From TrEMBL:
<dbReference type="InterPro" id="IPR015865">
    <property type="entry name" value="Riboflavin_kinase_bac/euk"/>
</dbReference>
<dbReference type="Pfam" id="PF06574">
    <property type="entry name" value="FAD_syn"/>
</dbReference>
<keyword id="KW-0547">Nucleotide-binding</keyword>
<dbReference type="GO" id="GO:0006747">
    <property type="term" value="P:FAD biosynthetic process"/>
</dbReference>
<keyword id="KW-0808">Transferase</keyword>
<dbReference type="InterPro" id="IPR015864">
    <property type="entry name" value="FAD_synthase"/>
</dbReference>
<keyword id="KW-0548">Nucleotidyltransferase</keyword>
<comment type="pathway">
    <text>Cofactor biosynthesis; FAD biosynthesis; FAD from FMN: step 1/1.</text>
</comment>
<dbReference type="GO" id="GO:0005524">
    <property type="term" value="F:ATP binding"/>
</dbReference>
<dbReference type="InterPro" id="IPR002606">
    <property type="entry name" value="Riboflavin_kinase_bac"/>
</dbReference>
<dbReference type="GO" id="GO:0003919">
    <property type="term" value="F:FMN adenylyltransferase activity"/>
</dbReference>
<dbReference type="InterPro" id="IPR023468">
    <property type="entry name" value="Riboflavin_kinase"/>
</dbReference>
<comment type="pathway">
    <text>Cofactor biosynthesis; FMN biosynthesis; FMN from riboflavin (ATP route): step 1/1.</text>
</comment>
<keyword id="KW-0067">ATP-binding</keyword>
<dbReference type="InterPro" id="IPR023465">
    <property type="entry name" value="Riboflavin_kinase_dom_sf"/>
</dbReference>
<dbReference type="GO" id="GO:0009231">
    <property type="term" value="P:riboflavin biosynthetic process"/>
</dbReference>
<protein>
    <recommendedName>
        <fullName>Riboflavin biosynthesis protein</fullName>
        <ecNumber>2.7.1.26</ecNumber>
        <ecNumber>2.7.7.2</ecNumber>
    </recommendedName>
</protein>
Amino acid sequence: MQRWRGLEDIPQDWGRSVVTIGSYDGVHRGHQLIISHAVERARELGVPSVVVTFDPHPSEVVRPGSHPPLLAPHHRRAELMAGLGVDAVLILPFTTEFSKLSPAEFVVKVLVDKLHAKSVVEGPNFRFGHKAAGNVAFLAEQGDTYDFEVEVVDLYVTGEAGGGEPFSSTLTRRLVAEGDVDGAREILGRPHRVEGVVVRGAQRGRELGYPTANVETLPHTAIPADGVYAGWLHAQGEAMPAAISVGTNPQFDGTERTVEAYAIDRVGLDLYGLHVAVDFLAFVRGMAKFDSIEGLLEAMSDDVKRSRDLVAVHDAGA
């Protein structure tokens, strides 16, 4: 899969293509439906498929300081899109100048002049251009002018537990923030993942017999609510069952939120300085301060047992 950053990276001899545009944070099941449709349509037409996305998130430019928590960094989104069969991903630097492009200017500058769109696939609520003035109806009108078709893919809707809301990154972020990683997994189609480099912490876990990987998460990462979770620690090409702690470590009056993963039944792991990923499969319990270290150790032992059992009945994500 080709990866381009900016319009200037697109090959000069690029021909017609099928395009879909969006932030696509998380590449959840609703996104997958749209992207897969674009890939299928591209194959029918005998042309490549392109996903256009943005960096930073448009809201950060339009309303500075409002950057939403991210469900997946761009390299992870690209991996997921490649798995869906996408031929190229174009990351457009979203600047103040770019944000001022009118919908018509966006169509010409991106879809017509550079990507030579033959078809554009979007969800019904797609908006684009300055002040999000463009919609799918306007896009279809532009398609009549510039010879590309527009296809609209209906959104997935959650079940009763999700309140019947359409699948969205906003809903997924809310579920993650609430610690409902099971609900987030339903929308994503896989466990929510947090990435970062393993750094040295207070090393209290090691002293207590449960050495953890203290993950320095990437900026703007969507981190689940404080608590203990079952999941996996991905490192050095291996997925290891893990008990994961998120919080400030109230037992020792901590103040900084951390994400720490204990690789269950593994001894002698040295992951310092490595980029790792942590997948959140299920909520185990909320964060608590115990009356004694003995009480904490008893809880940690139970956390590991429950996490081991929960992970055992699920396959690790990639």
